[in-house]
TrEMBL record:
Assembly, per entry: Homooctamer.
Substrates-to-products reaction catalysed: 2 5-aminolevulinate = porphobilinogen + 2 H2O + H(+)
Native source species: Deinococcus xianganensis
Protein name as it appears in the record: Delta-aminolevulinic acid dehydratase
Enzyme Commission code(s) on record: 4.2.1.24
Annotated Mg(2+) binding sites: E238
Signal peptide boundaries: none
Keywords, alphabetical: Heme biosynthesis, Lyase, Magnesium, Metal-binding, Porphyrin biosynthesis, Zinc
Pathway assigned in UniProt: Porphyrin-containing compound metabolism; protoporphyrin-IX biosynthesis; coproporphyrinogen-III from 5-aminolevulinate: step 1/4
Phylogenetic lineage: Bacteria, Thermotogati, Deinococcota, Deinococci, Deinococcales
Active site: K199 (schiff-base intermediate with substrate), K253 (schiff-base intermediate with substrate)
Binding of Zn(2+), residues: C115, C117, C125
Length: 333
């Protein structure tokens, strides 16, 4: 008689035979940075704050001490306008935060989110244009080609400030090629591009938009972010285009509802694959744990392990600091 339970009998046996391993070195810790000297809580994301530059440095230092080698920065400027000019200003919030973190925490890997939605007064990922013949939410969209120049300028400004990785998330056609060419022309041939290659128009982004102040004031993002029901063909096409244009890693966002897509990319491409465990996924667990419906620690580690099992080489997660602490305590699932 076959008895698979023999290998589950003790924690030591379970640990011995595991195929999937979760480690803090696989985590990327997101940090929201605003132009204030205060740290403010984000109501829809319990445990997550908007940080001052000084506090962001402390967050990066804490992450590295826990074995997390990477942070990704999201900026919240005081001034927003139609073109998102603070995204590519050399004294913009992300540029200043990057310089401070690189100076204060040697060895940390700083990833710069490269988009305009946090910097525009309309909350979209580039300058807007009207869509002929459309009305309602689809009457406005991002003007693709003019946005490429602004994204490229943003990437170069971030690299000049010391960003180790550029992570374009706007979902503009041709953005990876434009950014790669601009980085190379500016002498940043060594800076990799972590592309948000497969990014869906998802309901799971709600808390992030509160945190970053990037809720669209008109229209929606369905005209440029991917259709959740688009299927594998669209995902493969987007990922293949980014790979051909010079992306060094591919990302799937959100992660939890799209683990099948993440696994598809892992099998189809010879590039590292990143999962973004997004704000809505984080807040769902936080809310359930606060209500006593679920064990937060076990749920978080199980969720992140599932992302690893699906093929994620790295995971952007707001649980990063807590998960690293729990792993250090050798919690057994």
């Amino acid at each position: 008689m076959d008895r698979p339970r023999r290998l589950r009998r003790t924690p030591a046996l379970r640990a011995l035979t595991r195929e999937v391993h979760l480690h803090p070195s696989q985590f990327i810790h997101p940090i929201f940075v605003h132009e204030r000297d205060t740290v403010t809580d984000i109501a829809t994301m319990p445990g997550v704050q908007r940080h001052s530059i000084e506090s962001a440095v402390q967050q990066a230092r804490e992450a590295l001490a826990l074995g997390i080698p990477s942070v990704i920065l999201f900026g919240i400027p005081d001034h927003k306008d139609a073109l998102g000019t603070q995204a590519y200003a050399d004294e913009g919030i992300i540029q200043r935060a990057t310089r401070a973190i690189k100076a204060g925490v040697p060895g940390i890997n700083v990833i710069a989110d490269t988009c305009l939605c946090e910097y525009t007064d309309h909350g979209h990922c580039g300058p807007l244009c009207e869509v002929p013949g459309q009305s309602g939410a689809d009457a406005w969209t991002v003007d693709n080609d003019p946005s490429l120049d602004l994204l490229a300028r943003t990437a170069v400004s971030q690299a000049r400030a010391g960003a180790d990785v550029i992570a374009p998330s706007a979902m503009m056609d041709g953005q990876v090629a434009a950014i790669r060419a601009a980085l190379d022309d500016a002498g940043f041939t060594h800076v990799p591009v972590m592309s948000y290659a497969v990014k869906y128009a998802s309901a799971y982004y709600g808390p992030f938009r509160d945190a970053a102040g990037s809720t669209p004031s008109v229209g929606n993002r369905a005209t440029y972010q991917m259709d959740p029901a688009g299927g594998y063909r669209e995902a493969l096409r987007e990922a293949r285009l980014d790979a051909e244009q010079g992306a060094d890693t591919l990302m799937v966002k959100p992660a939890l509802a799209y683990l099948d897509v993440l696994n598809l990319l892992k099998r189809e491409f010879d590039l590292p694959v990143v999962a973004y465990n997004v704000s809505g996924e984080y807040s769902l667990i936080k809310a359930a744990a606060a209500a006593g419906f679920m064990d937060e620690r076990r749920t978080v580690l199980e969720t992140l392990t599932g992302m690893r099992r699906a093929g994620a080489d790295a995971i952007i997660t707001y649980h990063a600091l807590d998960a690293a602490r729990w792993l250090a305590e050798q919690v057994i699932l």
